[in-house]
Amino acid sequence: MRILVVGGTGFIGRFLLPQLSGVGHDVGVVHRPESSATLPNGVRGVAADRQRLGEHAAMLRAFAPDVVIDLVLSSGRQAAELVEVFRGHAARVVAITSMDVYRAAALLHGLEDGPLAPVPLTEDSALRTQAQTYPPAQLERLRQLFGWLDDAYDKVAVERNVVAAPDLPATVLRLPMIYGPGDRLHRLFPLLKRMDDGRPAILLPERLAAWRGPRGYVENVAAAIALAATDARATGRTYNVAEAESVTELEWARRVADAVGWRGRFVVLPDDAIPSHLRMPGRLEQHWAADSSRIRAELGYAEPVSRDESLGRTIAWERAHPPAVDPAQFDYAAEDRALSSSREGAENAEHTN
């Protein structure tokens, strides 16, 4: 099968490309002209500007892909352009979107009102009605990390334009919070630094400690994408991709502690007893727990990398590639004051095994 991957030199792509080429597929990757990324043996590079895909239509069509995987779709405009380029020139497109398409995301971020959305989220759960996914300040921070994000970022519009396209069947994959080597958001780092610094206790706000959200290890997510791209049964289908269980933030922290060998305690306190740098805004009673049973049942998906190995590889990478540290986010003096001033801290201490 000939597969063209748009945006395949980043976090997910570095694991996806070898999974595709390693089993004999003819793989090309669309990347920025200035990219210096090293591609796996046998993978062909196609230099094109993601924001101006239409200008490179002839070159992209000449690759004659059976399937196009777009890892960096961020707006309805980009999706419409993708469809225009490949309609009649590819058998199928695999559009990578996000769990943030669900109404639950808008409720969490305070962008929509109303009753809580039922969880776990399935592929048939209600979608957002607001185009804006994140508060403006948060979106701007994300754009500084991910240059492919469009000003009009909206994965709902991406899905709408891709699914409605005539003459170009689509598969939609809704991805979770992804961790692993190369994670530019460094999701494990705040916990890991405190553990490696020998903190005897780690504080968690009460609402955040109980919050459940979907996660996935990057190599496992890449495996799901490769499977959906190469299995014709995925045509016309939408799939959630996430670990089978959406655990609480407290349980996630415990798993990291076990992997690190940290023997301190987690202390859960009311939000108003927590230092401001540890508080999480939003309507945290709205969980994002997701059901990924459809892709498992229909395509036989199973994670190739175990949970323990996933965490081990991520921790090793985080230690070798720490981000710049903002001292205000690691105000241990304030955390110590919160611990010592609250009797609840001692009474509600959660110990790791």
UniProtKB/TrEMBL annotation:
Residues 334-353 have a biased composition (Basic and acidic residues). Pfam families: Epimerase. It comes from Gemmatirosa kalamazoonensis. Residues 326-353 are annotated as: Disordered. This is NAD-dependent epimerase/dehydratase. Residues 3-78, 155-242 form the NAD-dependent epimerase/dehydratase domain. The keyword Transcription does not apply. SUPFAM superfamilies: NAD(P)-binding Rossmann-fold domains (SSF51735). Keywords: Plasmid.
